[in-house]
Every structure is written in C-alpha cells, then in structure tokens.
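step: validate -> pass
step: tokenize input -> pass
step: predict -> running
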Amino acid sequence: QVQLVESGGGLVQAGGSLRLSCEASGRTFRMYAMGWFRQAPGKEREFLAAITWTGGRPYYADSVKGRFTISRDIAKNTLYLQMNSLKPEDTAVYYCAAGGSLSSSDRGYGLWGQGTQVTVSS
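step: predict -> pass
step: emit ->
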C-alpha cells in the first residue's frame, strides 16, 4: 500500500508563494503518475498539474500554467507543487494523488492524500 501525506499549506497574501509537499510511503514503485488537484468550497475538484513518477511529461491546467510548477524527488519519495503569484481565487484545499495513468481526470487516480488548506488573502 502507498500512503500520501500533504503539507505546506497555509495563509499567504496575494502575490506570494507557497510550496506544497506530498510525501509517499509504502510501495511507491507501483505508482506511475502523480497529480495535484484542488477543491474550493462549493466547487468541483479541479485538476492542476501531473507528472510521471520518473519525472517526465509534466503538464498543467491552463489556469495555473506559468505560475505553478510540479516536481518530484524520488530519493525523498516526495512530490512538490511550487505556487507563485498566488491569487485569492487559488484559495482551496489542495490534494495530491497517485495513479496508474497520467491524467487530468480525478478518475485516473486511485490514491489520495488528506489535503492541505491554502488560503490567499487579498
């Protein structure tokens, strides 16, 4: 089994930056792809970025392209999301996910972390 634990969320002013981490434990060799999603109150879960566990083929949602960067450190079994130029509309609970295919759909991921809150003040 693989477990995912996010960290790094918090309160930041608009224009600021945060780096989210997602530490994977367990049988990580079974993971092919990992992604970041977010969900704001009253809204559907939104895809942000995804990458293969080997580090190739990162891709992003248009809403965050150029502001967010996904990366991973295999030695640390950790996935990251560097978020710059944050906006109030980025406020949400952020989730990392692992799955067997590189996908922008949450149906492509079978394992999810517990989420970490990001709040951007104006």
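step: describe -> The two ends are 40 Å apart (CA to CA).
step: cleanup -> pass
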